[in-house]
Structure formats: C-alpha cells, structure tokens
Design brief:
By secondary structure, the chain is an alpha/beta fold. The protein has 10 helices and 13 strands. The chain folds into 2 domains: 127 residues, Medium-chain alcohol dehydrogenases, catalytic domain (Quinone Oxidoreductase, Chain A, domain 1, Alpha-Beta Complex), CATH 3.90.180; 129 residues, NAD(P)-binding Rossmann-like Domain (Rossmann fold, 3-Layer(aba) Sandwich), CATH 3.40.50. It starts with 14 loop residues before the first strand and ends with a strand.
Length: 288
C-alpha cells in the first residue's frame, strides 16, 4: 500500500476488540473493556503532541497488526466504545476520525454547497459528518452503482454518475453554474483533485481526504488557482479526534457499510473482494 512496512510484520489496521490483559502500569479494570484501536501511539511529550497534533507525534510507535487473534499496543491507542456499538462499526473508527478531523477544517459561514468525489468509506463518512453541519447541499460523484445507492440512502442531495455523457452538465446544474463552495477529494487520485477544483466558485475550499501517492503533483492551472483565491488543505490527522469518534459515529446507522465479514483464514478472499471494488467495507473476524 501507500504506507509499506518492513517484514516481518503482522498487517491490519482499523480494528476493535476486547482487552484481555494489561501490563503492570495499566489499571486492571481495563480488562474486559470493548475498544476501538488506533494503529499508532503518541508520546504526549513532543512539540506536536503538546500542540494537539497527536497524529504527527515525532516519537510515534506502531502497534502490532490486527490480522491476528491478539494484538499488543500502548494503552493510549485504545478507546472505549458504547455498549450498543457493534465491533464491525467500531472498527471503522480510524477512517471516520480522519473524516471527522477534515470536516472540522471547513468554513461553514455561508452554508456551502459541497461536492464530494468518491462514495467509498471516506466519502461516506465525510457526507455523514457534513450533514450535521450548517450546509446547503451535498453532491456525490461516484461511478459504482452500489456506493451511489448507499450515498443516496444516507441522505445525499444529488447523486451523479461520472460515467454518463452529460456528467459535467449535471454538475453545473446543481449550482446553477455558480460553482461549489467546497470540494472534497475522497479517492486519492491527483487527476480527480485537479478536476474537482475546477468546479469550485471563487474563494472555494478544496479538502484532500483521499491518500495520494508520494510525489504526486497537483495538475491545475496555478494562475487560475491564484486568481480565484482557492484554499487547498489536506486532512490526515486522527489524533485528538480519535477518542471522540466512536460516540459520533454511533449516531448513524452504519451496518449497511459492512459488505461481509470473513474468517481470519479467508483473508485472501477479503483482500480480493476489496481490490475488485465489489462492496463497501470488508471485515476480518478471528472468532468466526
């Protein structure tokens, strides 16, 4: 992937579970707690941590991966989840926290019209968090029929298929040709970032929530970018948003985002399904 690890290493992130044992410096009453887990721990002492940029901790340490029956991590990487939250939904805390962080960066003063490219898990979580804000409308651009339907069921105002011939015309109709106030790229393709920026109104805001390959370039007319005073910002941080995310996403009905849960020894099938774009989110459970 885009964040390769040196072997030997157990892979797997975005996970939840039950604490079965703790170290000597951790309170024993943590045993039995149902938790969502972050893939990194922060030191709490470096400059970035002191400035609440926890996801950019200089001394961050990775946990062991989740494609296993047990995983070992620092106690600060686990956050308790609501009693009525399923482990499947709790496992989506990590990507949801990135979207929570990103949508908090947006200026909502003028009730923005928002365009999202991509209705995968990141685009959907952005949609859900945005629907709690003071906005005008949300338009979703997504080629996958299943994902378009899910975005519609969850309340998106406009669903547009980029494969259709009159695609650009439909996008322009949403804003009466005036452009969107906010654009969110939730796929991770540089060409889509550039395309989406072109649909922004003057002083529009562009948010990168999809992870782009290293050394990718922004393929936009920088004169136009400057002239229209476009604001571009990235959102990667889970950090201090992670602990608050389980309660936030528990407000939504998210079971439909889980396409299938596989046994641990079926992990190759799950990876193939994910690569083929056949569904939304696939889970691995070592206890099935």
């Amino acid at each position: 992937g885009l964040f390769p690890s040196n072997p030997p290493k157990i892979l797997g992130h975005e996970f939840s579970g039950i604490i079965v044992d703790v170290g000597s410096k951790v309170l024993k009453n943590m045993i039995g707690k149902r938790v969502a887990c972050n893939t990194t721990s922060s030191c709490g002492k470096c400059k970035n941590c002191e400035n609440w940029q926890i996801s950019r901790c200089i001394n961050a340490e990775k946990t062991t991966g989740a494609f296993a029956e047990y995983s070992i991590m620092h106690y600060s990487s686990a956050v308790e989840i609501p009693d009525n939250m399923s482990f499947e939904v709790a496992a989506m805390t990590e990507p949801a926290s990135c979207c929570f962080s990103g949508t908090e960066m947006i200026d909502y003063k003028k009730r923005p019209k928002i365009l999202i490219f991509g209705a995968g898990i990141m685009g959907i979580f952005c949609q859900l968090f945005l629907m709690k804000k003071n906005i005008d409308s949300i338009a979703i651009s997504e080629p996958n029929n299943l994902r378009r339907n899910i975005a519609k069921e969850l309340g998106a105002d406009h669903i547009i298929n980029p494969s259709e011939k009159n695609y650009e015309e439909k996008l322009l109709e949403v804003t009466n040709g005036e452009g969107f106030d906010v654009f969110i790229e939730a796929v991770g393709k540089p060409e889509l970032l550039s395309s989406g920026i072109s649909y922004l109104s003057p002083r529009g805001q562009a948010l990168m929530i999809g992870v782009h390959p290293e050394q990718s370039n922004l393929m936009s007319d920088l004169y136009d970018f400057h002239y229209r005073e476009i604001k571009l910002f990235g959102a990667f941080g889970r950090g201090n948003y992670f602990n608050n995310t389980p309660k936030k996403i528990n407000e939504f009905s998210l079971e439909k985002l889980v396409s299938k849960t596989y046994k641990l020894d079926e992990i190759n099938d799950a990876i193939k399904s994910t690569a083929n774009g056949e569904g939304m989110k696939y889970m691995i459970s070592p206890k099935l």
